[in-house]
Amino acid sequence: MNKSTYTVPCIYQKTAGPDAASAKPVMVTVPGSKSITNRAMLLAVLADGVTDLSGALFCDDSRHFLQCVQDLGFTAEADEDTRRIRINGLGGQLPSRQASLYVGSAGTAARFITALLGSAEGVYHLDASPQMRRRPMAPLLHALRSMGAEIHCEEKEGFFPFTITGHGFGSHRLSIDIDQSSQFLSALLIAAVRSDQDILIDTTGSHGMAYIAMTIRMMEQFGVKVEILPGADGRPSSFRIPGRQTYRACSYPIEPDVSAACYFYAMAALLGVSVLVEGVHLSSMQGDLKLLRILEQLGCHLADTAEGILLTGPAEGRYPGITADMRSCSDQAITLAALAPFAQTPTRITGIGHIRGQECDRLAAMAAELTRMGIRCEEEADCITIWPGQPRPAVVHTYEDHRMAMGFSLIGLRAPGIVIDNPGCCKKTFENYFQVLEQTINALCL
């Protein structure tokens, strides 16, 4: 989208009604999963042979990841029209022992490529966008240093840009703190297969375990086993990756992006309508599927059909406020915050302190934009409470954050005068979001 702003059409009066939920559901198609696409690319790089990824997501994040793969010397081809990527992996070897890479704003590329190079042998320079330069890297860099990598941060310790001089696995027991990002652990787990000995990774923190489960499941789909060791409280605390394993090249289909689907499923609650996102099922390995269970607490009805999950909203979009711990699906905290002003009672979203270190300080951004609309809210260290109210017209600042743009666009469907500033920031993960939103609006208003 090239426009500098997007005025969201307020359609609540046209769509909400006692019979709206029983009308024919609106069908939505979303692109492939970013989380799965980028994990699959790293697994393909480490596999032995050619891996064919179908249904891949093409966006800023995945294009930066693919460019890094190519800049490392791998043969990697992409066809955006057919949504396919082919990568010729070399069984854990890297073609180049020296390279300069740019990861853009892609958190997965930043963390995954860094772990790959820190476990390799060679000298690599990495840089990132101003946004990614502000995001934390210190826990991962500390873990890589503990196994022998030399890392020189050129501007600020623990942040991009930096140069890695890797010496392989000098230690076979690592520790990582994942309170700021589960991507640190995912990165180490995937890269650990490069060792010919067992690797044991101890963890502190519990953020994003759904994403860790996705990583482990995908590693197993590519032929590598991971042992999960529980701590005293029964939760996973350590992970053992047995040595001398190899990822198998394969043909691998990418699931539709559940994170993208959630914005349209939220419309079911907001407008009291029925929404079906094609290809999304309860068997998905993506953690944001948990938002649908939260939407059930708002009165939505869920059915997993052959075509995809069908979500039917409560009559006339009337739903209660709830308290929701969203640490396992924190990308959707903004989505629930967008629904909160229209609830009948206050909404409290907890367990989300770590989102302060994402594309922007998302907790502060949510509070600022809701306040701009005249909605009462209270921001705390790791939670936010939002009271019901009618949002007044406002220009939503998106902070170069795709999730602020997509999530807060929902408010405009029910409150007139909501304008999204810089809608083009969605190109990070869902570059045609507003086109799909307009198609959905048109289908609902027929």
Characteristic key phrases:
UDP-n-acetylglucosamine1-carboxyvinyl-transferase, Chain, single chain, 4-stranded mixed beta sheet, 446 residues, 31% helix, alpha/beta
Fold and architecture overview:
This protein is of the alpha/beta class. It has two domains: 5-31 and 256-444, Enolpyruvate transferase domain (UDP-n-acetylglucosamine1-carboxyvinyl-transferase, Chain, Alpha-beta prism); 34-253, Enolpyruvate transferase domain (UDP-n-acetylglucosamine1-carboxyvinyl-transferase, Chain). Helices cover 31% and strands 23% of the residues. It is built from 14 helices and 23 strands. It has helices spanning 12-15, 34-46, 60-71, 107-118, 130-133, 138-146, 183-191, 209-221, 258-271, 290-297, 333-339, 362-372, 402-412, 433-444, and strands at 5-7, 26-28, 48-54, 76-79, 84-90, 98-102, 121-127, 150-153, 162-167, 173-177, 199-204, 227-230, 236-241, 251-253, 274-277, 301-304, 309-312, 323-325, 347-350, 377-379, 384-386, 394-396, 418-421. The strands form six sheets. The chain has a four-stranded mixed beta sheet, covered by helices on one side. The protein has a four-stranded mixed beta sheet with strand order 4-5-3-14, covered by helices on one side. Strand 22, helix 13 (402-412) and strand 23 (418-421) form a beta-alpha-beta unit. Helix 2 runs parallel beside helix 3 (60-71) and helix 2 (34-46) runs parallel beside helix 4. The longest helix is centred in the middle third of the chain and has 14 residues, at 258-271. It is globular and about 65 Å long. The relative contact order is 0.15. The model has no long low-confidence stretch (mean pLDDT 94).
